[in-house]
């Protein structure tokens, strides 16, 4: 399987076990590390790549639901707090 996600710590943590073959029976991954803006753009243009899974911004989800499904895990929502 081909997957793309950002190299930020929360994304690498979420996918660590799968990327490193620590999940018995899970398919092997070919990983592309890319900034979240790049993965958002890749998701918006599915014919431009051969990726099976993309980690995108939650805000980009409404624009890609006709081509992709939301997985029940792997997400991180953060509430911004102004000081």
Automatic annotation (TrEMBL):
<dbReference type="GO" id="GO:0009234">
    <property type="term" value="P:menaquinone biosynthetic process"/>
</dbReference>
<dbReference type="GO" id="GO:0016829">
    <property type="term" value="F:lyase activity"/>
</dbReference>
<dbReference type="InterPro" id="IPR030869">
    <property type="entry name" value="MqnD"/>
</dbReference>
<comment type="pathway">
    <text>Quinol/quinone metabolism; menaquinone biosynthesis.</text>
</comment>
<keyword id="KW-0456">Lyase</keyword>
<protein>
    <submittedName>
        <fullName>Menaquinone via futalosine step 4</fullName>
    </submittedName>
</protein>
<dbReference type="InterPro" id="IPR003773">
    <property type="entry name" value="Menaquinone_biosynth"/>
</dbReference>
<dbReference type="Pfam" id="PF02621">
    <property type="entry name" value="VitK2_biosynth"/>
</dbReference>
<keyword id="KW-0474">Menaquinone biosynthesis</keyword>
């Amino acid at each position: 399987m081909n997957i793309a996600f950002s190299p930020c710590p929360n994304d690498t943590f979420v996918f660590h076990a799968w990327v490193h073959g620590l999940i018995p029976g899970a398919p092997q991954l070919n990983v592309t590390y890319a900034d979240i803006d790049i993965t958002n753009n890749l998701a918006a243009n599915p014919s431009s790549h051969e990726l099976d899974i993309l980690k995108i911004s939650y805000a980009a989800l409404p624009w890609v639901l006709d081509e992709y499904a939301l997985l029940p895990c792997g997400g991180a929502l953060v509430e911004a707090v102004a000081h």
